[in-house]
Amino acid sequence: MHIADGVLATPVLLAATAVAAGGVAIGLRRMTPSDVPKTALMASTFFVASLIHVPVGVSSAHLLLPGLMGVILGWLAFPALLIALAMQLLILGFGGVTTLGVNLLIFALPAMAAHAVARRTLGAQARHLPAVGAMVGAGGVAGAGLIAVTVLAASGRDFLPAAGLLFAAHLPIIVIEGLVVAAALPTLHRLRPDLLAATQP
User: Fold this and answer.
1) How far apart are CA 49 and CA 146, in angstroms?
2) 124: closest CA among 136, 112, 132?
3) Residues 6+ apart with CB under 8 A from 51
4) How far apart are CA 167 and CA 55, in angstroms?
5) DSSP characters for 27-94?
6) Do the beta carbons of residue 71 and residue 196 sit within 8 Å?
7) Residue 76, number of CB atoms within 10 A of its CB
8) Are 80 and 68 in contact (CB under 8 A)?
9) Digits of tens for pLDDT over the chain (201 positions)?
10) Pairwise CA distance, residues 99 & 110, whole Å
11) Annotation: CATH topology of 10-199
């Protein structure tokens, strides 16, 4: 769901970059040395998940994982995603230099929403993990799609067909990620409960 250079209007790029920079600053301020391994782990997971992708107009469709990243990282999702997106840009050619801030927001804002949902619904209730996982997994992709559609639409009516195609291409991903995260959260709770510590109220 990366947006390439030369697509978006300048005001959209500037506003998104400013908001993204603020999110990264907050994430870095909250990061402690003990947070570095899990942040690196999730950045790597995001990078690997994007290796299998299908080009769709000015973007591409692949696993996104904003819900899972948000549940585990919270605000740390901003710097983790920035690193992963920069690696994708430099190594794989995904996205663009001028759209790095926009692409960061496309994934980081749904991640923060997923984190907020997890904090309110998980707590110590392990039995809710599959349902919450399905909700944040599917919702994370849907949220990313809606943000991508919004920034494309804000850059001109000519991009509306591409925006609709982009969202439609991710409908199967919404279902798949809901199932993936629904299975992942109970597994993490059983094997690595420390990774879910950020969701505790």
Assistant:
1) 20
2) 132
3) 62, 92
4) 13
5) HHHH--GGGHHHHHHHHHHHHHHTTS-EEETTEEE----HHHHHHHHGGGHHHHHHHHHHHIIIII--
6) yes
7) 26
8) no
9) 788 898 888 999 999 999 999 999 999 999 999 999 999 999 999 998 878 766 655 555 678 899 999 999 999 999 999 999 999 999 988 889 999 999 999 999 999 999 999 888 876 466 788 999 999 999 999 999 899 888 888 887 777 777 777 788 788 889 989 999 999 999 998 888 888 876 665
10) 17
11) Arp2/3 complex 21 kDa subunit ARPC3 (1.10.1760)
Query: Is 175:182 a contact under the CB 8 Å cutoff?
Result: no
At 151, list the tokens: 């920034």
Residue ranges covered by each domain of the chain: 10-199
As a whole number of Å, the end-to-end CA separation of the chain is 32
Beta carbons within 8 Å of 88's beta carbon, 6+ residues apart: 2, 47, 50, 94, 95
b/e per residue 28-62 (b: at least 16 CB within 10 A) = eeebeeebeebbeebbebbbebbeebeebbbbbbb
58, two tokens: 């000015």
